[in-house]
């Protein structure tokens, strides 16, 4: 159904948001804001120079399209080709919107030939990705700005996505002026990107909405995976290659699949040598590795899949700050169709096991 956001006129939060909205309207400097997934770096999606400001600030390759963030269904309809007497939102998406918006789901939509969206947003594609975030600060900011906001994650390209305002500052200080601080993100991995414009519908990026949740919706029972996820050869941990970087801390990441078991002392020393600084990110079952002739930073993300997702990017960043030489990560079982799929997808990229 339709709903709207109202606020108390004298709230200090509102004054900050109004200042941010004014900057979005009158300059080409993007504004960082919280969402329930990760922090976004937003700009007016209808203005080319503003959108170019995003690519510049985060040094993002210009052939990677951005997600358009809206605060209402009405605002989204305004971005679609009018279909007199009918809802312009394709019917396939209605059950998803009903169930998951506002929330961590991005849908791919046809872009009208006379679209108001700046061409830079879609990197030359005939479609655009849209989502309605669940963070109230994000929704109010979009409403105050009066325009849809194009926003990628607010990190420097190749780095782990930011899940706290401090992470944004670490990456973008000096390049942007405003970070709206909404505290740590609730989900911790990015939105699920789905394409329902082709049959069968597909998942282009696993994320905060799981494949199981999608399959429960009418028309999405047969959704297929449209990205590469499985490790290339069995479950052997692999040394990082040099070609592709994404979600990457400075230190190389050595990922152990859930089925592989924990690294032996010999394996760790083979990668590092004595006296090195080693980071370990544990989840379910690795006992603390002790007695190693190394300096150890040990982060335990707990055993709940959701808490692993919430803490993952932050843990990678924290180990970087400690200047570790290598990071060993305990993978989680991702065969269940839950948010572990998104966690392992990001970890395999961080470890450069898949593109
Ligand atoms: O949770 C999120 O989605 C966060 C927050 C800030 O909303 N945003 C985010 O944006 O992760 P970014 O730019 O880091 O990732 C956007 C993803 C990319 O994988 C991009 O290729 C895909 O969405 N995408 C955007 N538009 C697309 C389109 N028209 N067709 C296919 N994929 C698209
Ligand atoms: Mg990103």
What's this, in brief?
The protein has 11 helices and 13 strands.
Descriptive overview:
The protein has 355 residues and is α/β, with parallel strands linked by helices. The protein contains eleven helices and 13 strands. Strand 7 and strand 8 form a beta hairpin. Helix 1 crosses helix 6. 44% of the residues are buried. The structure holds threonylcarbamoyladenylate and magnesium ion. Magnesium ion binds next to loops. It is an enzyme of class 2 (transferase). It catalyses: L-threonine + hydrogencarbonate + ATP = L-threonylcarbamoyladenylate + diphosphate + H2O. One of its GO terms (cellular component) is cytoplasm. Its EC number is 2.7.7.87.
- Summed over residues and divided by their number, the pLDDT gives a mean of 90
Number of helices: 11
Rg estimate, integer Å = 21 Å
The bound ligands are: threonylcarbamoyladenylate, magnesium ion
What class, by secondary structure content? alpha/beta
The amount of helix comes to 25-40%
End-to-end separation in angstroms reads 39 Å
Q: β content, as a range?
A: 15-25%
Number of β-strand runs: 13
Please give the order of strands in the largest beta sheet: 1-2-6-3-5-4-7-8-9
* Low-confidence parts: 233-244
Instruction: List the helices and strands in order.
Output: HEEHEHHEHEHEHEEHEEHEEHEH
- Which outline best applies? globular
How many strands, which pairing sense, and closed or not: the largest β-sheet?
Answer: 9 strands, mixed
